Structures are given as structure tokens and as C-alpha cells.
Amino acid sequence: MKRTSRAIVILLAAMLFVSVLAGCKTAAPVAVEKKLKIGLSLATLQEERWVRDKDRITKDCADQGIELLTQIANMDAAAQESQCENLFTQGINVLIIAAQDASAAATIVDKAHAAGVKVICYDRLVMDTVNDDVYISFDNVQVGVLQGTWLTKAVPKGNYAILSGAPTDNNAKLFKQGAMSIIQPLVDKGDIKIVADQAVVEWKPENALKIMENALTANKNNIQGILAPNDGTAGGCIQALAAQGLAGKVPITGQDAELAAAQRIVKGTQGMTVFKDTRILADAAVEAAKSMFGGYTLANATQTVNNNKVDVPSILLTPIAVTKDNIDVALIDSGYLKKADVYK
Ligand code: BGC
User: Fold this and answer.
1) φ and ψ at 336, to 5 degrees?
2) 147 close to ligand 1 (CB < 6 Angstrom)
3) Helix%, strand%, coil% for the chain, nearest 5
4) End-to-end alpha-carbon separation of the chain, Å?
5) What is the CA radius of gyration of the chain?
6) Residue 123 Cβ < 6 Å to ligand 1
7) What is the rounded distance in angstroms from the CA atom of residue 204 to the CA atom of residue 211?
8) Ligand 1 centroid vs 33 CA: distance in angstroms?
9) Whole-angstrom distance, CA of residue 24 vs CA of residue 252
10) What is the largest CA-CA distance in the chain?
11) Nearest-5° angle of CA 165, CA 170, CA 172?
């Protein structure tokens, strides 16, 4: 609702309230302005970052008196749909969704639209729908570029194992696209040979562990570099390396700035991670929800990302590569992690 029309509604409601009071001495005060109610639907809490996202959104809403209803789908796309339907019937105005399945979630977004609920695609873009209202994430292609850049500097020549994230997650494609934009030219030159290339179903560390065990066996441990798409999968790979006495000897990437990854970076078993400050992401999503509810356009959604159907107005934050060299500044000084925990 525009400011002026909202003012008129408030004025009319106030006049009505006064006339009701005049005719009936015992009338209770009537709440005239509708309050924002946000639904938060997260695909998973498997990675530490999602717990941080949830906690920050919860705090932001509590601080500002916004009602928040949260649902976690535990990586079940069908459950996510029914949980969201339930949120619609509870009268949410805005849905903040991190989709389990990028395409399947189009149905959720379409149902939200039909119910008059605005949709914020949170971190993960919902594909194949004309109804995404806004996408708020990091520049996910750049995440991959940071990983690929670090890895090719650490290992300019040799055998690579390439792992990618869950095939149901659109981000996984973007991370890989970014990383391969750096790695592929070196493959074409003949400097790098890709000896394993596999997606990690559901981003599970145990699936990454198996992939890496098999890759090491198949290549008689002759692997010099590993592209791991996030810290969880890096953890699985490093476990496989450790079993062969190779932890710390094969450069490996990550993403998310998880505490365990930060500890591995200072110990030297993981080379890098990519820091995506979930505090900024969460704050941006709650701000966007408030604007949308107020009927304002999102002036800061200056970019667009195509979801196979339309260009979705987007806010893409900047990811930061973190190694031993800048871990204190990037993760500790920023208050994301505690020094005592990282250097435990
Ligand atoms: C997120 C990553 C996360 C992964 C697994 C991706 O969509 O962007 O931060 O590690 O999902 O949950």
C-alpha cells in the first residue's frame, strides 16, 4: 500500500473507531493497522550456516516486533511444500524461502502468489516460475571463481577431483560454473587433468567422503587438488585424505566459514573457505520483507538473475575468500567466529 492510501485507510479507521466509541461506551480498542507476519521456510539445518541464518532472522524479527513463523523441511521437497501451504493458511504476508529443490519449489511460489503472499528467494533462487518477487543471495558464480582461483594458484598442474553440490540446488550449478571458468582453460591447455567429477547428493559430508575414497583408490592416491563446493563436503574429503595420510598435503577448497573449517584452515588441512556473512543476508531479507509489505519497491534490488522464465530482481552480496592469511581479520575481527574457538 502506498503511503497516501495507507494514511487514508488509517484516517477512515480512526473515524470509524471514534463513531463506534460514541455509540457504545464499552467498545474495545480496535487494531487498525495490519502487522507484518513473515514465514521462513528453510530446506535444512545440516550446515552450521543455516542455523546462523535462522537465528539472525529470528533476532531481527523479535527486535522489530515482527511475527515470524519458521519451518525446516529437513531436505524433503514435498514436506517443504506442505509446510509452506500451512504458513499461507496462517496468514503470512511474506515468505522467505531457501528451497530444497530449485524447480519443484516453483509450485510453492505459484501458490504463494495465488494467496497474495510475497516471495523472497533466500540464498537459493527458485527456478521455472514467473512469480519470484525478489532473490537475495551472494554472487554465487563469484563464490566458484574464488574457489577456482585459489585452487589453480595452489595447484597449477596435476590431477584434480571436482566435487559439486546437490543437483537439486541451483547454487551448486553456479558455484561449479564459476570454478570451471578458471579451471577449464588449464584443462584445455593440458596442465590439469580432471580424474573425478561428481555431484554430492544432498550436500552430505558422508557422500563426499565416499566419492573421495573411491577417487583416491581409482587413482592410486595420485590426486593433487580437490574442488570441494562447501565446508561440509570438504570435511568428508579431508577425512578420506586423512585415512591415506594425505590430509594437509592435497590443497582443497570450501565455503561457508564454518567453525570446523576455520579450525582446519589454521591447522593446515583445508586451504580456504568462502565467507558469506549470513548476518548481512538475513538483515537484507527482513528489510526487503518490510518494504514489500509496505508496498515499496526494492530500490537495492539493482541486479537481475534469470530463473529460466523471467529476470528476477536481485540483491547479490559479495563473497570473500578466506585463507590462513586473512582469517583473523575476516572471521574473528568481524565477530563471526571467536578466536578461542578457531585456535582451539
Ligand atoms: C548454500 C551453501 C550451503 C549449501 C548446502 C547452498 O545453497 O549457498 O552456503 O553450504 O547450500 O546447504
Assistant:
1) -75, -40
2) no
3) 45, 20, 35
4) 52
5) 23
6) yes
7) 11
8) 37
9) 73
10) 89
11) 25
The CA distance from 226 to 210, in Å, is 14
**Domain 141-276+322-342 in CATH 3.30.390.50:** no
**Distances from the Cα of 1 to the Cα of 197, 295, 296, angstroms:** 50, 5, 8
Q: What is the pLDDT of residue 1?
A: 45
Looking at the whole model, is its pTM more than 0.70? yes
List the chain domain ranges: 37-132+277-317, 141-276+322-342
Cα 231 to Cα 228: distance, rounded to the nearest angstrom: 7
Q: Does residue 277 have its Cβ closer than 6 Å to ligand 1?
A: no
C-alpha grid cell, residue 9: 485507510
37-132+277-317 and 141-276+322-342 in the same fold: yes
Grid look-up 585456535 returns 343
Residue 211 has pLDDT above 50, yes or no: yes
Q: What is the rounded CA–CA span in Å between residue 253 and residue 264?
A: 11
Average pLDDT over residues 100-117: 98
Mutation pick for ligand 1 pocket among 44, 48, 54, 123 (CB with most ligand atoms within 8 Å): 123
C-alpha distances in Å from residue 286, one per residue of 40, 83, 115, 245: 10, 20, 20, 46
Unique residue bearing C-alpha cell 519458521: 70
pLDDT beyond 60 at 19? no
Which residue matches cell numbers 524447480?
A: 103
Query: Each residue of 226-284: pLDDT tens digit?
Result: 999 999 999 999 999 999 999 999 999 999 999 999 999 999 999 999 999 999 999 99
In the CATH scheme, what is the code of domain 37-132+277-317? 3.40.50.2300
Q: What is the DSSP letter of 36?
A: P
Length of the chain equals: 344
For the Cβ of 47 lying below 6 angstroms from any atom of ligand 1, the answer is yes
